[in-house]
Each structure stands twice: as structure tokens, then as C-alpha cells.
């Protein structure tokens, strides 16, 4: 039991999220454990996957009501933390990588200053040490001309380079938990794989746990050891391989994706009646 607790980075039991006075939960009874592994959460828009990720980070709007039987990061109950305590955890113990760096980076600060600011905040470094740490981390995410890039502003770099900068900022302090919410959806197809491989390398190097949130079930299956499939705010199936998919919704997601190996004239759509019948059982 002790070994299990040490290896479990995040433990969630019956997580529920409601907004305002709505009687319908956005997330309902979600449960899972995360160790030093890559866990994927997939589903269509509105399925609750991003809400789950932001609930873990405690970054939902004040109108959100979060409840859970268990909601622990490395044994620390997150729901009992004050906002100030959560602020100390974010970036240092847990990090969130958003899908579009254009909206995550400060447009009026240089890249070097922003990465160095993360080093000063989470590592307690002085100005000169923080800048050197920023330079080293940018080189670690395969930005070869780090000195030049550090002097640029976010609008002066490409989307792929911007996402590398975000990964550098978020993983600089080697957090235990990394949540990547659609980290490649705003990128060109040619650089998506490179960003995922880089993210995987750093997560493994830091011995962290990764939650990858995406609508692309095939990409997640190729990258993660386990997959949680969410529909209407609930986890309907947990998979280690797409070949094991049994739920109609999971099969529908797989069938709706284009497959260059087996081209079809018209993609399938989800059978909502089958999903409603499954939910009623």
C-alpha cells in the first residue's frame, strides 16, 4: 500500500463539477489514478475533458462548484487548499500546457523575460541565474539560437516555437503533474509529432505524470499507456488499446476519423440513439 501511494501522483474519486445554478453537472463521477505514466483523456467538444483538467488545476471560474470524495496530488488534498496555496503549487508541482501559445504568452514581454520569470518564481533564482536557466531550458526544447529567440516577442515566433517556449516554461521546475490540453491542435501537422516527442522526453526525464487531453483518439492511443473516454461529462470507457473499444461512443469516435490506409467517400457520424440506449441501461 505504501509503494502504491508513493507511485500515485494524482488520485481522483467521484469528481463532480457544476456551474452556477445548473442542475446538470459538466463533469460527473469521474475517477482515476495517475502514476508516472501518460494518461489520455479523449472526447468530443463539451464532453468534459478540458473541464476535468482545469478542475484539477483549480482554474475554473468562481461559479464552478467542485466536489470529490478524493482529490489528492501526491497525498495532498487539493480541495482543501486556499487559492494562495494553489498558486504555490501551480507551475512548481503541477503545470498546464494550453493549446495555443498565442493566448498563453504575454504579448508585451520578450520570450527570455517570460521564461526567466518562471525560473525566478518557481526556483527562487536571481535575475542573472534565471536568465541563464531560461537560456538552458530553451536549448533543451531544441531552440538552437536561444539568445536570439530570448530577445523576440511572442508575435515574432512561429506557433511550433511558441509551444516549445510554453513547454520550457511549464517544465522548468520539473512538476510532478503535467496536463497538456490539446497541445498540438493549433500547430501545423508537420510539427505536431516533434512537439509530442519533446513533451514525452521531458516528462520521462522529470519522472512526472502526464495527462494528455485531446479529441484525436488515434493520436492519444499512439502516445499514451491508458485512455479515458469521456461522453456527456462521464468516463464511459478506459482503454489500453483501441482494439479493446466496446462502448458505442468510443467506436463512433474511431470510425469518425479519416484513415488514409482505408479511404472512404463519406465519414461515419456518431449514432446518438445507440448512445442514449447505452446510457439508459
Automatic annotation (TrEMBL):
GO molecular function, one term: ATP hydrolysis activity
Origin superkingdom: Bacteria
Subcellular location per the Swiss-Prot or TrEMBL entry: Cell inner membrane
Pfam families from the UniProt entry: ABC_tran
One term under GO cellular component: plasma membrane
Segments passing through the bilayer: none
Major localisation: membrane
Alphabetized InterPro entries for the sequence: AAA+_ATPase, ABC_Ni/Peptide_Import, ABC_transporter-like_ATP-bd, P-loop_NTPase
Chaperone in keyword set: no
Domain ABC transporter residues, every copy: 12-257
Membrane-protein topology: Peripheral membrane protein
Entry keywords, A to Z: ATP-binding, Cell inner membrane, Cell membrane, Membrane, Nucleotide-binding, Translocase, Transport
Family per record: Belongs to the ABC transporter superfamily.
PANTHER family (alphabetical): ATPASE AAA-TYPE CORE DOMAIN-CONTAINING PROTEIN, OLIGOPEPTIDE TRANSPORT ATP-BINDING PROTEIN APPD
Name of the featured protein: Peptide/nickel transport system ATP-binding protein
Annotated source species: Rhizobium mongolense USDA 1844
Lineage of producing organism: Bacteria, Pseudomonadati, Pseudomonadota, Alphaproteobacteria, Hyphomicrobiales
